[in-house]
Each structure stands twice: as C-alpha cells, then as structure tokens.
Amino acid sequence: MAHKAGFVNIIGNPNVGKSTLMNAFVGEKLSIITSKAQTTRHRILGIVNGDDFQMILSDTPGIIKPAYELQTSMMDFVKSAFEDADVLLYMVEIGEKALKDETFFKKIEHSQIPVLLLLNKIDTSDQHVLEEQVQHWKDLLPNAEIHPISALENFNVKEVFDRILELLPEAPPYYPKDQLTDKPERFFVNETIREKILLHYKKEIPYSVEVETEEFLEDEDIIRIRSVIMVERDTQKGIIIGHKGSALKRVGVEARKDLEKFFDKQVHIELYVKVNKNWRSNAQQLRRFGYNG
Ligand SMILES: Nc1nc2c(ncn2[C@@H]2O[C@H](COP(=O)(O)OP(=O)(O)OP(=O)(O)O)[C@@H](O)[C@H]2O)c(=O)[nH]1
Ligand SMILES: [Mg+2]
C-alpha cells in the first residue's frame, strides 16, 4: 500500500479545545491546556507515525484580533497553518456562532482543501442543542464535514482520526518516523512553567509572562533546569514571587512534577524572575522567544 503523509492543521477560536484534541491524537501532553483563552501562543507540531502513514498535526493559537505585537505574531502562526494544510480541522464549541475574525472565516468558507468542522464539548450539551448546532454549521459552511466530538472525554476522536487518514494524500514521510514534534526540550519546559502561571495568577499576569530556559543539563539520572520568568513591569515581579517566595515555589514544584512525567526522569528546577520591559511589543525580544516578531 502507498504511504500517506500530510499536514493537518487545527484552527479555531480561543479555548475551544484545540490543544486538548491534539494531545488526544498524539497521546502525549505536547500542548499545555488551561481554561484561560490564549493559552497556546505558538504553532506546535504533533506527529503521529504509523507503518504506512505520517499525520503531522499542528496546534495553533486561538484566533483573536491582535492588540499588541505578540498577538500579531500569534496570528501569523495561524496564517501559516492555512498555507500548508492538506486537511483543515476547524474547531468550534457548543454554543458558538462564528469565528471572531471575518478574514479567517472567509478562508475556511472558500477552502480548496477538505475542512472537517469539529463541534467540540458535546459532553456539555443535550441532543436537542446538538442537532440545532449541527444545522447551524451546515447552513454556514455547506462544504465542511461536521463531526460532533468531545476531545476531553475522547468521544468520536478515533473516528475523526480515521477519517483524516482517508483524506491524507499519498506522500513519503516529511519527518523521521521516530520524531514526535518539531519543538526542542526547552520549549516544553517553558510551556509547562507558563501553564502553572496561567493556572495560579489572575488578570493580566499570565499574559505578561514569557519563560526562557537558560540551562538544560541532562545527566544519566537527573535533568537540571534553570529558567527565567520574564514579566513586563516591576510590580508584576513581586506578584509572581509572592509572600516569602511562596507563589513562585508552587510554580516550581508543580512544573517539576509534570516535567518528571514528561521526561521520565528526575528533574531539578531553579526559577528566577526578571523584568523585561514591554517585551510583548518588542520585535527583537519576540524573535528571541521564538515568535516571528
Ligand atoms: N467539557 C469539555 N471541556 C473541554 C473539552 N475539550 C477541551 N475542554 C476544556 O476547554 C478548555 C480549553 O481547552 P484547550 O485545549 O486549552 O483549548 P484551546 O482551543 O487550545 O485554547 P487556546 O490555546 O487558548 O486557544 C480547558 O479547560 C479544557 O479542559 C471537551 O470536549 N469538553
Ligand atoms: Mg491551545
């Protein structure tokens, strides 16, 4: 049988469950997940390999109207996901009516490649609402195939996976067959720390934070990590650290536990907090953190 391979790019509004689905497909926690919008900031590849196929999934940031440079570059990742897709997964959640950005919506409407509309979080809905929503999307996007799913409860996920496999073009693998992602180890360290910050800090704080791992030293039985948490303003530094360092300590402890699972090894983390004034609007800083800038 001929080998199939292709890019399967997940796009949609913030918080609809894109990262949850990608992790479910890959079977690893490649993307961080929180109940806050704009959790994902990068385009992250998750590669699923079989003997006769390679499915290259892309998780992308939720679509928003950019208010500062960082968000502009997040939307550049979304644009790039339109450009190389062999199959487009447009994810919406129960109750949602349309994509917040007209331009992106038009691209989906007029897509020349197959679009699967994944209606997610159906575990939160009843049959009547579900039928209504399916009809709504059928009217809005007649060219899309509609699949109700629950990424969280793994409902219909396998069926969607099999359908994507059918749609993949014949092609040789793009990546080595033992490769799981395009991102280096340090990226997952940064993201895990950022997830804990999204979980434990309020308002603007998580959106003002970037994490940079300065040291990643792997020995036979331990990984030693030193990471810097970057904030935009002096006042935010104190909030991150907390009373006698308690808040920062919690971030470190929780990140360490997750990373020990991820790397299957003992992990030691040292965390620092630094002020990097207005990094979100600074092209040079953004490039340094892996955004297009
Ligand atoms: N009830 C329910 N919750 C879900 C489902 N899928 C995801 N969630 C929850 O929805 C929230 C957002 O999930 P994410 O996977 O981070 O969503 P996202 O689309 O990647 O979000 P951004 O990266 O911010 O754009 C989390 O709290 C998930 O646990 C689902 O099928 N059912
Ligand atoms: Mg996400």
What does this structure look like?
With 293 residues, the protein is α/β, with parallel strands linked by helices. The chain has two domains: 4-167, Rossmann fold, CATH 3.40.50; 185-289, GMP Synthetase, Chain A, domain 3, CATH 3.30.300. 36% of the residues lie in helices and 24% in strands. It has nine helices and nine strands. It has helices spanning 18-26, 69-83, 102-109, 127-140, 157-167, 185-200, 234-241, 246-263, 283-288; strands at 4-12, 44-50, 53-59, 87-93, 115-120, 145-148, 210-218, 222-231, 266-275. Strands 2-3-1-4-5-6 form a six-stranded mixed β-sheet, sandwiched between helices. Helix 4 (127-140) links the parallel strand 5 (115-120) and strand 6. Helix 6 (185-200) packs across helix 8. It is globular. It starts with a strand and ends in a 5-residue tail after the last helix. 37% of the residues are buried. The site of guanosine-5'-triphosphate has 23 residues, from helix 1.
Tell me what portion of residues adopts beta-strand conformation: 15-25%
Low confidence ranges: none
What topology, given as strand order, has the largest sheet?
Answer: 2-3-1-4-5-6
Structurally, the number of domains stands at: 2
The CATH architecture term of the largest domain is 3-Layer(aba) Sandwich
Radius of gyration: 20 Å
Mean model confidence by pLDDT: 96
Instruction: Assign an overall shape.
Output: globular
Bound molecules: guanosine-5'-triphosphate, magnesium ion
Our measurement of the CA-to-CA distance between the termini, rounded to an integer number of angstroms, reads 43 Å
The first-level CATH class of the largest domain is given as Alpha Beta
Order of helices and strands: EHEEHEHEHEHHEEHHEH
